[in-house]
Amino acid sequence: MRHKASKISQLRTWGFLLTLAGMGMMVLGTAAVLLWGNGGKFILFIFFLLGMITMLGSMAIYFWAGMLSTGSNVIECPTCGKTTKMIGTTDRCMFCKTAITLDPAQARE
Q1: The dihedral sign for the CA sequence 73, 78, 84, 87
Q2: CA 4, 11, 89 angle in degrees (round to 5)?
Q3: Are the C-beta atoms of 89 and 102 separated by less than 8 Å?
Q4: Residue 85 burial (CB count, 10 A)
Q5: I need a labelling partner for 58 at 20 to 30 A (CA). Which of 11, 24, 101, 105 fits?
Q6: Strand partners, 76
Q7: What is the pTM of this model?
Q8: Burial of 14 (0-12, 13-18, 19+ CB in 10 A)
Q9: For residue range 90-109, what is the model confidence (pLDDT) as tens digits?
Q10: What are the residues whose beta carbons fall under 8 Å from the beta carbon of 44, sequence distance 6 or more?
Q11: Which residues of 99-109 are buried (b: 16+ CB within 10 A; e: fewer)?
């Protein structure tokens, strides 16, 4: 069974995927010029524009994750004993993926 990651890790994963997608779009735009010469410059412009917008979205997600990380609760995981950050009342440990909560009503023990 695949365990879910912590909320901060999920945001960072989406930021990384948007970074890769943006860079890939820019590479494809460059490939259009190599394949079609001057006729591919319009495709180059479109793909560079889309890649730049995707990279800016990635930067916004990384900024958002960083701001959430600075205001999160720092707790010790009851399972692995490592210090982890928690957003909201329920989250997962960044290291062992154990579900952790600060709300006694949602605790399973």
Answers
A1: negative
A2: 65
A3: yes
A4: 19
A5: 101
A6: 83
A7: 0.79
A8: middle
A9: 888 888 888 888 877 776 65
A10: 29, 30, 32, 33
A11: ebeeeeeeeee
